[in-house]
């Protein structure tokens, strides 16, 4: 175990003791324990219209903002999702799972680019907003566009958190916490298998 992993484990134990002392219930195994948790919910605002259409902010692979675009939310059968996603991505994105810390990729790529949803290719995060949170999961201080993610109140494990889902296909991505860096103070803690890095191309 590396020194960084040791420090993370010590911090997680400290925060777990503080959480349990306060009367909150939590489950081990891939969860991060933070003393300050909050929950927001924009799921109704991100709901598709009667035709199943949602309005997203579209981005080219060179990073250019293409403006609002109305697309049909991707809806697939479970068999189709299993064919489209890797087993690990299916577990996280379609079964609301969590990958093991330090098991994934995308820890601060060394070149510019953006992260898209592996399921529907919706642009989710700009690599420029990623930071090293020391948690073992890719972390960002903001999404590439608020319209491209769904924030949903999550009360599983006896905790109140804000889940993050892809607005283009309603797949689980991770959670957001209020212990991030400036300028937002937020930490979008994502599962690596729920992100596809696209290196920035020339305009």
Explain the overall architecture.
With 203 residues, the chain is an alpha+beta fold. It has a single domain (34-199), classed as Beta Complex (Metal Binding Protein, Guanine Nucleotide Exchange Factor, Chain A), CATH 2.170.150.20. The protein has helices spanning 3-21, 78-84, 87-95; strands spanning 53-59, 65-72, 113-116, 123-126, 130-131, 139-140, 149-154, 161-166, 172-177, 187-190, 196-199. Strands 5-6-10-9-8-7 form a six-stranded antiparallel β-sheet. A hairpin with a 5-residue loop joins strand 1 (53-59) and strand 2. The radius of gyration is 17 Å and the shape is globular. Mean pLDDT is 83; it is low at 1-36. This is Peptide methionine sulfoxide reductase MsrB.
Strand content: 25-35%
Largest β sheet strand count, sense and barrel closure? 6 strands, antiparallel
Rg computed from alpha carbons, rounded to a whole number of angstroms: 17 Å
The total count of helices amounts to 3
Low-confidence segments = 1-36
N→C terminal distance: 43 Å
Features of this protein?
alpha+beta, three-stranded antiparallel beta sheet, disordered N terminus, 203 residues, six-stranded antiparallel beta sheet, 11 strands, Metal Binding Protein, Guanine Nucleotide Exchange Factor, Chain A, 3 helices
Secondary structure elements and their pairing?
Elements: H1 3-21, E1 53-59, E2 65-72, H2 78-84, H3 87-95, E3 113-116, E4 123-126, E5 130-131, E6 139-140, E7 149-154, E8 161-166, E9 172-177, E10 187-190, E11 196-199
Antiparallel strand pairs: 1-2, 3-4, 3-11, 5-6, 6-10, 7-8, 8-9, 9-10
């Amino acid at each position: 175990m590396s020194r960084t992993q040791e420090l993370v484990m010590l911090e997680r134990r400290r925060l777990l003791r503080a959480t349990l002392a306060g009367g909150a219930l939590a489950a081990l195994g891939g969860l991060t324990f933070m003393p300050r948790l909050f929950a927001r919910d924009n799921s109704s605002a991100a709901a598709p219209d009667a035709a199943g259409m949602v309005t997203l902010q579209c981005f080219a692979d060179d990073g250019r903002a293409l403006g609002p675009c109305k697309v049909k939310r991707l809806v697939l059968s479970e068999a189709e999702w299993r064919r489209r996603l890797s087993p690990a991505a299916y577990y996280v994105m379609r079964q609301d799972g969590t990958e093991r810390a330090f098991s994934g990729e995308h820890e601060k790529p060394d070149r510019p680019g953006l992260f898209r949803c592996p399921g529907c290719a919706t642009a989710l995060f700009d690599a420029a907003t990623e930071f090293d949170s020391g948690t073992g999961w890719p972390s960002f201080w903001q999404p590439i566009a608020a319209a491209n993610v769904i924030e949903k109140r999550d009360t599983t494990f006896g905790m109140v958190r804000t889940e993050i889902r892809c607005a283009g296909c309603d797949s689980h991505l991770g959670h957001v916490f209020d212990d991030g860096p400036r300028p937002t103070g937020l930490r979008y803690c994502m599962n690596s298998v729920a992100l596809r890095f696209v290196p920035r191309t020339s305009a």
